[in-house]
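User: quick one - fold this with adenosine-5'-diphosphate bound?
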Amino acid sequence: MQMGAMQDFELRVMRLLDHVAREHPTREVVTRWADGRETRNDWAGIHRNARKLAQRLVKWGINPGDRVATLAMNHEHHLTSWYGAMGMGGVIHTINPRLFDEQLIYIANHAEDRVLFYDKQFQPLVDRLKPEWTSIERYVVFDDLGPDGFQALLDAEDGDYAWYEGPEREPCMICYTSGTTGNPKGVLYEHRSTVLHAMHAAEPWVMGLSASDVILPIVPMFHAAAWGLPFAGALAGAKFVYSQTNDAAVLCELMNSEKVTIGSGVPTVWLAMFQHMDATGEEPRFLRQITVGGSAAPRAMLARFMDMGIKPLHLWGMTETSPVATALAPGPGWGDLTRDAQLDIVCKQGSIPFGVELRIVDDEGTELPRDGETSGRLQIRGPWVVKRYFKAEQDAVDAGGWFDTGDVAVLHPDGTMQITDRSKDVIKSGGEWISSVDLENAAVGCPGVGEAAAIGVYHPKWDERPLLLVVRKPGSAVTPQEITQHLTQHVAKWWLPDEILFVDDLPHTATGKLLKTVLREQYKDYKLATAA
Ligand code: ADP
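Assistant: Sure. Structure tokens for the protein plus adenosine-5'-diphosphate:
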């Protein structure tokens, strides 16, 4: 006889949508479209539309496990497509339209996408690549209001559909890394990992979401599943505000008209917001928290939010970690710390919540101490961390289940983690490591510096020495001497760049990160004056 039992309850993503539609049916999902139109739906409506879409996909002969792709900015139809595809057992594939053609061709074919839902603005891209995409059978435009558009497709269904059910370890989503080297790699999220990640992301010591929140995800839905917000926000019963454009003026206006409490975006998005604020005097008045990640957020940015009374929630993660891993979580005695001491912690990449295990190792794989000084290769394991890339022949983890993140980090005795660099970007000078990220962040704190990139260039004596490339702010005439002077207050003397060059712009990846591979290639034969 059984001693007793708890209930069977497969952790499938549709439980999140069922929950929010049942408990918070009238909580809104608002969209400002690129043409200025505004549509107002709610979670009950998204639930209904997702059922209609699932019906349609089944009629088209899409089978559980098949990939359904999107090439789109943020809006309610994009959200509907995620839940609709997952609801019939499909796997949603969010394609990043900023990738190069070659990568766009590769990933759609590699994923064997069968359907593509896309925004009108990407029509030229679709026309260009259609002949190369070998598996896509159907193309539908999200924001076409005509008889072939997404809305008409939904209108033709009655929504009488019960979600496809299956084991929780089935896949529900695939995201490709932007692949700064080699081909992009697909990370196949499962229903279980996605639900667990949503529970984790909503926790008080991570994003701390609740039904009183109004979330405006500026992070695109094609960037690492919009940091899991469509799932974590549903779990919490939050209202969503979407903007199809990333124009800071539109975002700021929406933040005030819709009383947005949480905004999420990479550092460059917030820099644009600051520029807008400085130019117009307009400020987001209801924000209680901003979520920033994807690259290290500069100290000056985090400080400005703190001074505005907004919690700057600094997150770290990657596509391979679903993506949220660590987050700023105030520890014991937080309230007694000075503003600067708090800021020191905010600048780090957060604490380690349950479900995430981190360690740092040396090049031989030997674990290094968590002493706040030693830096090493950051490794991670947990239930929402990749084990094997899509269609890969081998696991991406070692025998102990650890995944090597490619980041270099320091673990502090107080439990915080600090990214110091990407392992490929550290500048190796005289056998010691210089953090290119620290140099860049210190440089952007110098008045007149818009953006900065530090790379190692060949030096006969030291192996590599730092070269700093700087984009000046419009109208600024800041000099190398002034920047060096500023840097001496923030970094060790031997870290100071051997040279500072001014450039008009810097190359970025599809997710807005500095493309160091291109810079290293460009400056590989650069002769430093100090090397003469
Ligand atoms: P992509 O390069 O495709 O945009 P990800 O978004 O998965 O891929 O990028 C993950 C990487 O971004 C991390 O490995 C890390 O190097 C960097 N990163 C993410 N968040 C932070 C952060 N808060 N501080 C510093 N680096 C970060």
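One thing worth noting: The pocket of adenosine-5'-diphosphate is lined by residues 177-178, 224, 293-296, 314-316, 318-319, 323, 349, 405-407, 419, 422, 509, 511, 513 (CB under 6 Å).
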